[in-house]
Amino acid sequence: xxxxxxxxxxxxxxxxxxxxxxxxxxxxxxxxxxxxxxxxxxxxxxxxxxxxxxxxxxxxxxxxxxxxxxxxxxxxxxxxxxxxxxxxxxxxxxxxxxxxxxxxxxxxxxxxxxxxxxxxxxxxxxxxxxxxxxxxxxxxxxxxxxxxxxxxxxxxxxxxxxxxxxxxxxxxxxxxxxxxxxxxxxxxxxxxxxxxxxxxxxxxxxxxxxxxxxxxxxxxxxxxxxxxxxxxxxxxxxxxxxxxxxxxxxxxxxxxxxxxxxxxxxxxxxxxxxxxxxxxxxxxxxxxxxxxxxxxxxxxxxxxxxxxxxxxxxxxxxxxxxxxxxxxxxxxxxxxxxxxxxxxxxxxxxxxxxxxxxxxxxxxxxxxxxxxxxxxxxxxxxxxxxxxxxxxxxxxxxxxxxxxxxxxxxxxxxxxxxxxxxxxxxxxxxxxxxxxxxxxxxxxxxxxxxxxxxxxxxxxxxxxxxxxxxxxxxxxxxxxxxxxxxxxxxxxxxxxxxxxxxxxxxxxxxxxxxxxxxxxxxxxxxxxxxxxxxxxxxxxxxxxxxxxxxxxxxxxxxxxxxxxxxxxxxxxxxxxxxxxxxxxxxxxxxxxxxxxxxxxxxxxxxxxxxxxxxxxxxxxxxxxxxxxxxxxxxxxxxxxxxxxxxxxxxxxxxxxxxxxxxxxxxxxxxxxxxxxxxxxxxxxxxxxxxxxxxxxxxxxxxxxxxxxxxxxxxxxxxxxxxxxxxxxxxxxxxxxxxxxxxxxxxxxxxxxxxxxxxxxxxxxxxxxxxxxxxxxxxxxxxxxxxxxxxxxxxxxxxxxxxxxxxxxxxxxxx
Length: 814
What we know:
By secondary structure, this protein is mainly β. The chain is about 5% helix and about 60% strand. It has a 22-stranded antiparallel barrel. It has a 5-stranded mixed β-sheet with strand order 8-13-14-11-12. A 4-stranded antiparallel β-sheet has the order 3-2-5-6, with no helix packed on it. Strand 36 and strand 37 form a beta hairpin. It is globular and about 95 Å long.
């Protein structure tokens, strides 16, 4: 009821206002004076679209000064001013563009209106409205099929994203077409590029396999970022925000504009700090972005350098369910199962139920730096052929530090210590685990734009070279060697791919799509692992990933599409390290998408059906290796299927509604859970297997919904109610309610006011109230269990998210 009450208030407000006027007009080509259907006009922060004759009618606008920005693919963007004190008729003449633009860098890896797949693209303006300093996943939270989480509970620091239930290791991420996923784990760490949203021109999310891209295989989705494009006018901008949990964000951006008709330079520096919602879950994030470009009508040479450093206090252990429930007896059991000492047990018993953090050592931190260097060269050889080549290099280095209570010397390859008559086998220890990596390569594409055929020949060669090592920095026993390197190993991964995408306009209505990709991976790893086992790995994979599809144009504003795709994905590093002696199989995904799109002045809708069938999907079963680490194993058959609905409804000129809904089933056909039985006296070791059929895939809610009501009471003021619903999620693959995350509904309120005074371009004020109704909820977790003493023990851990909290932001643009 809470959401409907708020929505009702906004609806009532939409009927208030002063005198209103209408703009009628047309958008035409300067070449032949024909109308341009589907051209977009941005007026007073709203987007309007011309009809199939290139005409448009916008009613209900209050009197005032307006700036109209008109865009149409293949034509130069046109901006004009309009003083509105009566009904007006306008004619906007668009000039065809023959100038190469920055979009050529990402053209090869992006979907467009003729691509028969499912995607959503956010422009810079939409991203910046929500960018109060939280990590990028939280800015994408209201997109279809998206679930986000934060270890620290407030969206700053370590954050995660799932799309259609697929975690970050199954989501391909590219920045300017350059792979961003970690090569060995395939994970994405947004904390390593803090405030990247401030330097993003647009973000496209493709769900499912999507189109071919570079880097890791897309097994659930792709996230494709384009950084800032060319600014012809000089600018400067400063953004500052503050909020709950002592959160602060400070950003300074500058640009030279077009110098000497060819040169453009841009820069940004940012700092974000937060204490976090969880105890001691602080973040100190610094980032930068610099670019310099040389532009002619046919050539672009652009260098981009960005990166940052992060120091975050660890909060990845989670909160035990016993602590959330304030169950003292269960907390004692948790402490016993975790082998915590009395100090740690007392800390558990006396902490806040929702903000508990097991770590108390002051330097229990993750400290990492990452620098990215990109050089892009684009050239238009003719009206039909355009080429793009990009070189890249990423340097990452850092560590995380841990305080370990009563840790065995054998875990570090050390001998027992004899002092007098005593033999000491363990000690309190502080250790650091380091990562030093280099990632470099080349990406390329050749684009052909013909009358009926559009084709892209693209690909990449990339190499990752990463060292993993650990050292002891302190021990309670003074004879233990300090800075002792107790393990070292190296990972070397080479990834090559080539793809050919083709769109062929069969008739005026039918467009056929073919996308063929070949990918080859070689991965070697050798040395000693942190558990003191030897690592010797040499594997290779050859993958063929075909995609075919068809779009049918019902009329200028309605479209049907369908596609079938195959994707293959290699196991990650831990699948080999933690499951020694086994040979995990690669995973295969068969993905079908079918949908309907409609665009009109007041209503835009996309309805999509998807089926994702997996072969040999790797999942956790509860099995452990010989040192107690969880391992993943292949399950023969599993699938995800569902319907996604996404729409934008302009209810009136003062009220619009963006809404999306995903209804899905996510199943494993046959699943075997592994439990260990330690016997009545905890002196045995037996493996128990439990068989399940047709179980839910973990962390895959059957219902996900997002909503955004935006109300414009007067010009330059926007009030938005942002709502997110996530259905029940299971912590494992057994569909057991006792091991699940409850469904949750959150509401945020965002208010924005912009003012354009004579002495600067713009001043804007924004406020954001997160979790308006103070909902207590958890968005992520994990579980484990065992048998012993005749009982079954289960431990669930959760990641509580912050209750009601706020952020305020002010931006000055010069």
